[in-house]
Amino acid sequence: MKKSKSGSFRWPKGRRAAVSLCWDDARPSSVEVGVPILNHYGVKGTFYALPRNMTRQLKKWRAAAAHGHEIGNHTIKHPCMGNFISWQTPETMLENYTLGRMEREILEANRVLSATVGVKPTSFAYPCAQTYVGRGTRLKSYIPLVARHFEVGRSGFSETYASPERCDLAQVPSLDFDCKTFEQLRAMVDAAVADGCWLIITGHEVGDGRVRQTTSAKALGKLCAYLNGRPDIWTDTVTAIGRHIAASVRHPPIPARLR
Predict the structure, then answer these.
(1) Residue 80 dihedral angles phi and psi, to the nearest 5°
(2) Quick check: is 126 in a domain?
(3) Any idea what the CATH number is for the domain that residue 140 is in?
């Protein structure tokens, strides 16, 4: 088995790294275009769902879940910071949230997804990759809420991939999928393999990769084929890989001098 570059962690079955492919919001193209590509190559993806976006394609989402793709929690209302003035409203501004309200809405999303798709989400993706509620001196992190209710919390727009030994499974970094060429995606994969790390790639739409917030369908197909040709890479859902890390890594207590 290959050790990670950062220490003694070992990926299973001689693998050198892990990759998870994700899409946020349950946008129609992700299930209509993305899922068939993944199915063709036998790759399992993770889809962080806004329940309101799933209504018209509900049968397809159920089929995707039955096929082994992961359906994760992306909240019920997609709250983000209020500075997104073109689409954010005072009702869904994180600055106006409390921890209690955030927890209620996260659990409501779980309930709706369980009732409509038949799955209980085990991982969570932070909308806009933002992890706080409130403002100023009243600002609080809701990462502990996610850690309480989910096995993995996925962040976004990160600068690097996840070290299996060091990452906080309640806020695992992910890199951007949208508008990337296959060559760019392959370089991201190869860099993660070189370091023995877990690469999570996050997108939104699937189709014409020149369009904003869109994973190139052509690049996705090439990436899936590339991953299939690399037995040294474990490609799986966020929860599957997160569970292996959780079972394999025991973080030592923080030394007193660093507390």
Answers:
(1) -140, 175
(2) yes
(3) 3.20.20.370
Per-residue CA distances from 147 to 123, 124, 152, 172 (Å): 9, 9, 7, 11
Q: What is the pLDDT along the chain (259 residues), one digit of tens a residue?
A: 445 565 679 999 999 999 999 999 999 999 999 999 999 999 999 999 999 999 999 999 999 999 999 999 999 999 999 999 999 999 999 999 999 999 999 999 999 999 999 999 999 999 999 999 999 999 999 999 999 999 999 999 999 999 999 999 999 999 999 999 999 999 999 999 999 999 999 999 999 989 999 999 999 999 999 999 999 999 999 999 999 999 999 876 666 665 5
Q: Which domain holds residue 93?
A: 12-249
> 199: which strand partners?
19
Q: Where are the alpha helices (DSSP H) in the chain?
A: 28-29, 35-41, 58-66, 99-116, 143-149, 182-195, 217-228, 238-248
- Any domain includes 256: no
**Is residue 43 situated within a structural domain?**
yes
* Tokens 């073109």 found at: 86
